[in-house]
Specification:
By secondary structure, this protein is of the alpha+beta class. The chain has two domains: 82 residues, Protein of unknown function (DUF541), domain 1 (Translation Initiation Factor IF3); 95 residues, Alpha-Beta Plaits (2-Layer Sandwich), CATH 3.30.70. It contains five helices and nine strands, in the order βββαββαββαβαβα. Strands 3, 4, 5, 6 and 7 form a five-stranded antiparallel beta sheet that branches. A four-stranded antiparallel beta sheet has the order 1-2-9-8. A hairpin with a 2-residue loop joins strand 4 and strand 5. It is rod-shaped, with a radius of gyration of 30 Å. The two termini are 44 Å apart.
Length: 244
Amino acid sequence: MALPAPPPARVFAELDTAPAPAPAPLGRSGPLALPGREVHVSGSAELSARPDRARVSLRLGSRKEAAGAARSSVSRRLEYIAHSARQRGVPEENMTVTEDFSRVENTYQMEAEVCIIFSDFGKMQNVCNLLIEKLGTAVTISPPHFYHTPEAIDTLRRQACVAAVGNTRRKALEVCRLFGQSLGKPLLIKEEETKEWGGHTDLPRSPDSLTLQERIQNATAYASSRVFAVFEIKGKENRRNKLL
């Protein structure tokens, strides 16, 4: 899906005639800001962030005539799954196990589900590939669900705002140079608009048939920020600095 075009940036400056600056105090040199001379600039930035977490669910079960046999069959596989994940650096707190034991006709049925949270997607693939190789059809592994932690989304918002502020300053600097002026300190910085949206929604195949990279792409988050800023305008631009 084509990304929406960022809002057009408005750049305008008001360079009013102002009286000549007063002489610099003793011990101070360089241009002084002229009262009432400002440059008003607005600009935007758009950033994206891939998901930083993935949740994988593993289901397994056993139906036996004896209750102990059903429990033992599932327990052995649960221990192997937990051991394999720990060996590859998955913390214990990132694994959750739920169990369900029931009587079905004349047999006992034991079912379990293991949910594992991964922050390293390469490690996730290694664990899943190993379990498929060793356990085969004795375990069912769902496709990974990718998502963002609240901290990751908050970081994306801040980065978009900071990037928009940087764009407005660069534009203000270009405007001042166009008129041979020197850019001063910011007088006002205001974030006027923020937007957030998810990844692609028009992928050609069903969600269950997506590749790993397509799932990551589909879970990618986007954020944009539009900022308005007012900077003071100093006197003439220092030609020496311009040459550096």
